[in-house]
Amino acid sequence: MDLENKIYRAAELLKQSKYTVVLTGAGMSTESGLADFRSSRGMWAERDPLQLASQEALQNNYPEFRAFYLERIKTLQKNSPHKGHQILAAWEKAGILQAIITQNVDGFHKKAGSSEVIELHGNLTRINCENCSCEVTPETFIEGLNCDVCNGKLRPGVVLFGEGLPQNEWEKALSHLERAQLLIVIGTSLEVSPANQIPLYFRGRGKQILLNQEETSYNKFFDLFIQGSAGETLAGVDKALKIY
Predict the structure, then answer these.
(1) Which structural domain range is residue 190 located in?
(2) Cβ atoms < 10 Å from Cβ of 28
(3) How many CB atoms lie within 10 A of CB 69?
(4) Predicted pLDDT at 91
(5) How far apart are CA 108 and CA 104, in angstroms?
(6) Exposure winner among 10, 192, 217, 225, fewest CB in 10 A?
């Protein structure tokens, strides 16, 4: 099946589905100018994530932990959602899409206008105290201050190495998947657990579409694979939806 026919097939499956869920990964963020930390050209190529993005670093090497996340937050503030994020938000408003499950921590889905977003790995823009959980503004973290309630260390509200996923977010994701008729996976190689188990969990429940720059070891579980960038592919499907 050529690309054009795949695009129209995706639009057809979207039209037929009464409950559609999207799962997004790093490929969604890289098109907004954010580094894919797991690629050979990403930030992980120069820095060991186990040393910088972990509970151990937070407790025992806070200056480098803070410097690392300070860089990420500043990069985030210089970039914005791309057309792919905006298309998904428009689909939700039109009743075409019911929920987004994301591995990304940039908050761009919500910034683009999506409301039902399950952030499995947290959000960089939420800053809280490690000690008392008090929430503060990102500017407080950027300025290098401690918690003004207990003087504890401040940290971004993301899942660090050595921490488990927030159980309530995982349960919300599964709740949406139990109702879904169509799952669209966008911009992920499906290497990170437990999110990579979602296509396996959903198998047999409905149709599955994968939109990604490269093939994955999970391709066999999908009814349709479209190779390409998230933004361009979603724009193509959106155009086909309006014609279909």
Answers:
(1) 1-34+81-121+164-244
(2) 31
(3) 23
(4) 98
(5) 9
(6) 217
**Token pair listed for 95:** 């009743």
DSSP label at residue 54: B
List, for residues 212-242, the tens digit of each pLDDT value. Answer: 999 999 999 999 999 999 999 999 999 999 8
Residue 233: partners with Cβ closer than 8 Å, 6 or more residues away: 7, 84, 186, 211, 226
- 121 catalytic residue (yes or no): yes
Question: What CATH number is given to the structural domain containing 110?
Answer: 3.40.50.1220
Which CATH number do you get for residue 44? Answer: 3.30.1600.10
pTM: 0.92
Work out the pLDDT band at 33, boundaries 50, 70, 90.
confident
Cα separations in angstroms, 227 against 142, 160, 187, 189:
38, 31, 10, 12
Which entry of 85, 109, 121, 176 is annotated as an active-site residue?
Answer: 121
98 in the same domain as 15? yes
Handedness of CA 125, 54, 37, 191 (dihedral sign): negative
